[in-house]
Design brief:
Blueprint (H helix, E strand, L loop, with lengths): L3 E12 L2 E12 L3 E5 L6 H9 L6 E6 L5 E4 L13 H9 L12 H13 L15 H14 L4 E5 L7 H14 L4 E5 L3 H7 L2 E6 L1 E5 L2 H9 L5
Helix pairs in contact: 2-3, 2-4, 3-4, 4-5, 6-7
Protein backbone atom coordinates (compact mmCIF):
# COMPACT_ATOMS: atom_id res chain seq x y z
CA UNK A 1 0.00 0.00 0.00
CA UNK A 2 1.33 3.43 -0.96
CA UNK A 3 1.70 6.17 1.64
CA UNK A 4 0.87 9.80 0.95
CA UNK A 5 3.77 12.18 1.62
CA UNK A 6 2.03 15.44 0.62
CA UNK A 7 -1.65 16.14 0.01
CA UNK A 8 -3.15 19.28 -1.57
CA UNK A 9 -6.92 19.70 -1.15
CA UNK A 10 -8.74 22.48 -3.05
CA UNK A 11 -5.79 24.87 -2.68
CA UNK A 12 -5.93 28.44 -3.90
CA UNK A 13 -3.23 31.09 -3.81
CA UNK A 14 -3.40 34.62 -5.22
CA UNK A 15 -0.92 37.44 -5.68
CA UNK A 16 -3.15 40.42 -4.94
CA UNK A 17 -5.91 40.22 -7.58
CA UNK A 18 -4.25 37.53 -9.68
CA UNK A 19 -4.76 33.90 -8.65
CA UNK A 20 -1.66 31.86 -9.45
CA UNK A 21 -3.40 28.54 -8.73
CA UNK A 22 -6.90 27.54 -7.70
CA UNK A 23 -8.89 24.34 -7.13
CA UNK A 24 -5.61 22.42 -6.85
CA UNK A 25 -5.89 18.88 -5.49
CA UNK A 26 -3.35 16.07 -5.74
CA UNK A 27 -1.37 13.55 -3.69
CA UNK A 28 2.39 13.04 -3.69
CA UNK A 29 3.15 9.41 -2.90
CA UNK A 30 6.07 8.50 -0.67
CA UNK A 31 9.06 7.04 -2.48
CA UNK A 32 8.09 8.38 -5.90
CA UNK A 33 9.41 11.08 -8.20
CA UNK A 34 6.59 13.42 -9.17
CA UNK A 35 7.00 15.85 -12.08
CA UNK A 36 5.23 19.21 -12.22
CA UNK A 37 5.08 20.44 -15.81
CA UNK A 38 3.18 23.18 -17.57
CA UNK A 39 3.55 26.58 -19.24
CA UNK A 40 5.64 29.41 -17.82
CA UNK A 41 3.51 31.35 -15.37
CA UNK A 42 1.16 28.41 -14.97
CA UNK A 43 1.82 28.05 -11.24
CA UNK A 44 4.54 25.38 -10.91
CA UNK A 45 6.81 27.55 -8.77
CA UNK A 46 3.85 28.68 -6.67
CA UNK A 47 2.99 25.06 -5.88
CA UNK A 48 6.64 24.43 -4.95
CA UNK A 49 6.60 27.45 -2.60
CA UNK A 50 3.32 26.34 -1.04
CA UNK A 51 4.66 22.83 -0.52
CA UNK A 52 7.90 24.14 1.00
CA UNK A 53 6.09 26.50 3.36
CA UNK A 54 7.36 29.78 1.91
CA UNK A 55 3.81 31.01 1.28
CA UNK A 56 0.48 29.98 2.80
CA UNK A 57 -2.60 28.99 0.86
CA UNK A 58 -5.48 31.47 0.76
CA UNK A 59 -7.92 28.57 0.67
CA UNK A 60 -7.75 24.80 0.99
CA UNK A 61 -5.40 22.56 2.89
CA UNK A 62 -1.86 21.28 2.44
CA UNK A 63 -0.93 18.28 4.58
CA UNK A 64 2.62 16.99 4.97
CA UNK A 65 3.03 13.45 6.28
CA UNK A 66 3.57 13.62 10.05
CA UNK A 67 7.23 14.00 10.95
CA UNK A 68 8.37 14.48 7.35
CA UNK A 69 10.73 17.31 6.47
CA UNK A 70 11.27 19.05 3.14
CA UNK A 71 14.57 19.95 1.50
CA UNK A 72 14.10 22.82 -0.94
CA UNK A 73 16.33 23.36 -3.98
CA UNK A 74 15.69 26.76 -5.53
CA UNK A 75 15.80 27.63 -9.21
CA UNK A 76 18.65 30.06 -8.51
CA UNK A 77 21.54 29.41 -6.16
CA UNK A 78 20.52 31.99 -3.55
CA UNK A 79 24.05 33.06 -2.72
CA UNK A 80 27.09 34.72 -4.30
CA UNK A 81 28.89 31.95 -6.18
CA UNK A 82 32.09 34.01 -6.12
CA UNK A 83 32.19 33.85 -2.32
CA UNK A 84 35.32 31.99 -1.11
CA UNK A 85 33.68 28.89 0.33
CA UNK A 86 34.30 25.22 -0.37
CA UNK A 87 31.94 22.49 -1.48
CA UNK A 88 32.14 20.82 1.94
CA UNK A 89 31.34 24.08 3.74
CA UNK A 90 28.24 24.66 1.61
CA UNK A 91 26.97 21.12 2.15
CA UNK A 92 27.76 21.27 5.87
CA UNK A 93 25.38 24.22 6.18
CA UNK A 94 22.59 21.77 5.38
CA UNK A 95 23.68 19.51 8.24
CA UNK A 96 23.42 22.28 10.85
CA UNK A 97 20.86 21.96 13.60
CA UNK A 98 17.86 24.26 13.25
CA UNK A 99 18.97 26.12 16.36
CA UNK A 100 22.35 27.61 15.49
CA UNK A 101 24.71 27.87 18.45
CA UNK A 102 27.49 30.49 18.10
CA UNK A 103 31.08 29.22 17.94
CA UNK A 104 29.96 25.62 17.91
CA UNK A 105 32.04 23.31 15.72
CA UNK A 106 30.57 20.75 13.39
CA UNK A 107 30.25 17.31 14.93
CA UNK A 108 31.85 14.25 13.38
CA UNK A 109 28.36 13.00 12.57
CA UNK A 110 27.51 16.22 10.70
CA UNK A 111 30.74 16.08 8.71
CA UNK A 112 30.05 12.44 7.84
CA UNK A 113 26.55 13.33 6.66
CA UNK A 114 27.94 16.09 4.46
CA UNK A 115 30.64 13.85 3.01
CA UNK A 116 28.12 11.10 2.31
CA UNK A 117 25.83 13.59 0.57
CA UNK A 118 28.67 14.86 -1.60
CA UNK A 119 29.47 11.29 -2.61
CA UNK A 120 25.77 10.61 -3.27
CA UNK A 121 25.64 13.38 -5.90
CA UNK A 122 28.82 12.20 -7.58
CA UNK A 123 31.23 14.87 -6.32
CA UNK A 124 33.54 12.80 -4.10
CA UNK A 125 36.97 14.43 -4.22
CA UNK A 126 35.52 17.93 -4.64
CA UNK A 127 35.15 18.62 -0.91
CA UNK A 128 37.91 21.25 -0.71
CA UNK A 129 37.23 22.82 -4.08
CA UNK A 130 35.92 26.38 -4.09
CA UNK A 131 32.40 26.78 -5.45
CA UNK A 132 33.69 29.44 -7.85
CA UNK A 133 35.66 26.66 -9.56
CA UNK A 134 32.57 24.58 -10.37
CA UNK A 135 30.48 24.33 -13.50
CA UNK A 136 26.79 25.18 -13.32
CA UNK A 137 25.86 21.51 -13.27
CA UNK A 138 28.32 20.73 -10.49
CA UNK A 139 27.02 23.64 -8.42
CA UNK A 140 23.46 22.34 -8.76
CA UNK A 141 24.69 19.01 -7.43
CA UNK A 142 26.22 20.80 -4.43
CA UNK A 143 22.88 22.43 -3.63
CA UNK A 144 21.15 19.05 -3.87
CA UNK A 145 23.84 17.58 -1.59
CA UNK A 146 23.11 20.33 0.94
CA UNK A 147 19.45 19.29 0.94
CA UNK A 148 20.46 15.65 1.36
CA UNK A 149 22.73 16.56 4.29
CA UNK A 150 19.72 18.06 6.05
CA UNK A 151 18.26 14.53 6.06
CA UNK A 152 15.04 15.84 4.54
CA UNK A 153 12.48 13.17 3.72
CA UNK A 154 11.16 15.01 0.65
CA UNK A 155 13.31 16.83 -1.92
CA UNK A 156 11.49 19.64 -3.72
CA UNK A 157 13.24 21.19 -6.72
CA UNK A 158 12.14 24.25 -8.68
CA UNK A 159 13.38 23.97 -12.28
CA UNK A 160 16.80 22.60 -11.33
CA UNK A 161 17.92 22.54 -14.97
CA UNK A 162 17.60 26.31 -15.45
CA UNK A 163 20.72 27.85 -17.02
CA UNK A 164 22.26 24.43 -17.69
CA UNK A 165 23.31 23.19 -21.10
CA UNK A 166 21.65 20.06 -22.51
CA UNK A 167 24.37 17.67 -21.34
CA UNK A 168 24.48 19.06 -17.79
CA UNK A 169 20.67 18.92 -17.59
CA UNK A 170 20.67 15.31 -18.74
CA UNK A 171 23.26 14.38 -16.10
CA UNK A 172 21.24 16.17 -13.43
CA UNK A 173 18.10 14.20 -14.25
CA UNK A 174 20.09 10.97 -14.24
CA UNK A 175 21.15 11.89 -10.69
CA UNK A 176 17.52 12.51 -9.67
CA UNK A 177 16.58 9.17 -11.17
CA UNK A 178 19.10 7.54 -8.82
CA UNK A 179 18.05 9.59 -5.79
CA UNK A 180 14.39 8.63 -6.11
CA UNK A 181 15.41 5.20 -4.81
CA UNK A 182 16.05 6.77 -1.39
CA UNK A 183 13.92 9.95 -1.33
CA UNK A 184 10.50 11.25 -2.24
CA UNK A 185 11.17 13.84 -4.95
CA UNK A 186 9.05 16.59 -6.50
CA UNK A 187 10.46 18.45 -9.51
CA UNK A 188 9.01 21.44 -11.33
CA UNK A 189 10.44 21.39 -14.84
CA UNK A 190 9.82 22.57 -18.38
CA UNK A 191 12.15 19.93 -19.85
CA UNK A 192 9.56 17.26 -20.61
CA UNK A 193 11.94 15.08 -22.63
CA UNK A 194 13.97 14.33 -19.51
CA UNK A 195 11.67 14.68 -16.52
CA UNK A 196 8.72 12.70 -17.87
CA UNK A 197 11.00 9.81 -18.78
CA UNK A 198 12.15 9.34 -15.18
CA UNK A 199 9.01 10.42 -13.28
CA UNK A 200 6.75 7.90 -11.58
CA UNK A 201 3.77 10.25 -11.81
CA UNK A 202 3.12 13.67 -13.33
CA UNK A 203 0.97 16.71 -12.66
CA UNK A 204 0.13 19.22 -15.38
CA UNK A 205 -0.06 22.72 -13.89
CA UNK A 206 -1.83 25.61 -15.60
CA UNK A 207 -3.61 27.51 -12.83
CA UNK A 208 -5.43 24.27 -12.09
CA UNK A 209 -3.90 20.79 -12.09
CA UNK A 210 -4.48 17.53 -13.92
CA UNK A 211 -2.97 14.33 -12.55
CA UNK A 212 -1.37 11.63 -14.70
CA UNK A 213 -0.47 8.30 -13.15
CA UNK A 214 1.45 7.47 -16.33
CA UNK A 215 3.81 10.35 -17.28
CA UNK A 216 4.09 9.00 -20.84
CA UNK A 217 0.42 9.84 -21.41
CA UNK A 218 1.11 13.47 -20.56
CA UNK A 219 4.27 13.50 -22.67
CA UNK A 220 2.38 12.17 -25.68
CA UNK A 221 -0.32 14.82 -25.29
CA UNK A 222 2.23 17.61 -25.07
CA UNK A 223 4.22 16.26 -28.01
CA UNK A 224 1.05 16.23 -30.08
CA UNK A 225 0.52 19.88 -29.26
CA UNK A 226 -2.76 19.28 -27.53
CA UNK A 227 -4.05 21.95 -25.17
CA UNK A 228 -5.06 20.23 -21.95
Amino acid sequence: MTETAVKFSDVRYCYNEVCAVHDVSFDIEKGQLTALVGPNGGGKSTIIKLMSGFVRADEGKIAINSGSTIGYVAQNFGFDVSFPITVLEVVLSGALDKKIKPFRKYTKEQVKRAEDAIEEVGLAGFEKRGINQLSGGQLKRVIIARALASEADILVLDEPDSNLDAEAAKELYMLLNDLKKIKTIVVASHHIDYILDIADTAIYVNRKTQNFEKPKQLKDKLKEGMVI
